[in-house]
Amino acid sequence: MRKPLIAGNWKMNKTLAEGVRLVQDLSYLVEDVEDVDIVVCPPFTILKGISTLIEYDKPNIKLGAQNMHWEQEGAYTGEISPLMLKDLNVEFVILGHSERRRYFFETDEIINRKVKAAFKFKISPILCLGESLEEREAGKTFEVVQNQLFKALEGVSQEEVKHLIIAYEPVWAIGTGKSAFPEDANDTIRHIRALIGSKFTPEIAKNQLVLYGGSVTPENIAEFMVEPDIDGALVGGASLDAVSFSRIIKFRG
Ligand code: 13P
Asked: Which domain holds residue 183?
């Protein structure tokens, strides 16, 4: 059985005081939730503060980062390493987000290095895949996600891939208020699961968590979660408010 996972990607938002407040409010609102894994991904500057809060208050909330470098240490000005994240008890890291691909020119090769580094440091990558509007209109969605997936997973072992989380985020649905139709998202996610099965084993595919991301809200989350292949959500804007994020986490009502 795949346990649903709902992750909040705060992107470049929240000062320390705002982030602490958000996690405190959220932990109160979701304290009775046991059947969903909850992850927050704050910006680097406040990971330590949120990590300390989680360590002391022990809410049912796990910590993720939004990016990282692939090397453990070295002359890479401005970068953050997997070792540094591990040091703060970070359990997840978002990799290959379309904003990283688009604004910071991250290639599939760079993403592959980061994915392998995450596994090496026992941090679960939340690997983002998704087509642009142009690619979708050209009927290339399956081809694009296959390419992104296989390149990101080059050299990854069967043991490692068991700790992978995939987020299907169509680029045109991110931050636009125009979410995908749940059945369409499910079709692509079913395809992604089949690709995992072909590259690894049917058993691994069956257990593979695949999330949907792109304009998820408290109003539409339930429609995604009824789809058989959608195991959760990667939420941007709607994760920045404790009440709205808690409503998404409590999608069962
Ligand atoms: P929105 O939920 O704001 O559309 O962002 C989705 C996203 O990019 C999560 O990683």
From this structure: 5-249
Please state the separation of Cα 148 from the chain's center in Å.
15
Cβ atoms within 10 Å of 253's Cβ, excluding its own:
5
Give the burial class of 38: count Cβ atoms within 10 A of its Cβ; 0-12 exposed, 13-18 middle, 19 or more buried: buried
CA 175 to ligand 1 centroid distance, Å: 6
Instruction: Give the catalytic positions in this structure.
Output: 97, 169
Q: Does residue 59 have a pLDDT over 90?
A: no
Closest among 72, 71, 14 to 45, alpha carbons compared: 14
- Residue 1: the pLDDT is 83
Select from 9, 94, 239 the residue to mutate for testing ligand 1; criterion: most ligand atoms less than 8 Å from CB: 9
One-letter amino acid of 14: K
Count of the separate structural domains present in the chain = 1
C-alpha 12 to ligand 1 mean position (Å): 12
Which atom of ligand 1 is found nearest the CA of 237?
Answer: 3
Query: What was the pLDDT predicted at 39?
Result: 98
Domain of 41, CATH number, reads 3.20.20.70
Nearest residue (CA) to ligand 1, atom 5: 236
Averaged over 8-35, what is the pLDDT?
98
pLDDT for residue 62: 98
Residue 216 alpha carbon to ligand 1 centre in Å: 7
pLDDT in tens, 92-138: 999 999 999 999 999 999 999 999 999 999 999 999 999 999 999 99
